[in-house]
Amino acid sequence: xxxxxxxxxxxxxxxxxxxxxxxxxxxxxxxxxxxxxxxxxxxxxxxxxxxxxxxxxxxxxxxxxxxxxxxxxxxxxxxxxxxxxxxxxxxxxxxxxxxxxxxxxxxxxxxxxxxxxxxxxxxxxxxxxxxxxxxxxxxxxxxxxxxxxxxxxxxxxxxxxxxxxxxxxxxxxxxxxxxxxxxxxxxxxxxxxxxxxxxxxxxxxxxxxxxxxxxxxxxxxxxxxxxxxxxxxxxxxxxxxxxxxxxxxxxxxxxxxxxxxxxxxxxxxxxxxxxxxxxxxxxxxxxxxxxxxxxxx
Length: 297
Known about the structure:
The chain is of the alpha/beta class. The protein contains 9 helices and 9 strands.
């Protein structure tokens, strides 16, 4: 007996060339009817991934460029004419204390971790709304969603990473408001807050090797499942690992205690000290960077 084809599911993932972005693309490709749009700077890696997935739309772009959002939106409109899921995953981190690195360090974090996803969302929002409006019966279609990948650093700040936290705090706050604003348009907005994530380039051997700290390290594939939960799954937010929500709760209920615990680098394991100025995470330009990033989102 022939089954009807699965309804379309067009998903766009930024920072898709490696790390969390690559894992998310691979997971979303398993969804029935999936058509993926992969965004990053490194075109060669994107095309290799697209081939592995059996085909995908590739957009090689630096998301901090002035014309990047319009370029991405034009490709999605032309190639697919719909968008069911936007995953704002690309991000970066450079270590530095404000007294040393100053405003310039804050500025580059905001450009990458806040401005870039906000600008891309603005460019794609009309298409997301139009896709949501095409379902006369939402229960029969797919949930149209935006998932912003923030960080546990959006809830608890640490010395030497204040600029990173500033961008991720902004992304989390904006996500809450955007959820309220876009709900009436049929667009769900979810938030994912990863902590330490082990990747091939950053295996987190020191943390994983100790029973006391092993539990705080996750894998990109686990974050990818959380992204699916926060998108089509309709969850408002997901911590990865899940127990990280305790740190966020402690920040609200016991702020003085959290400040004491983080004073002087507290809660920073040896594996997170001594970073240089390399970008971390999936960098703003859309790639998994080569610095301290796979350590922490």
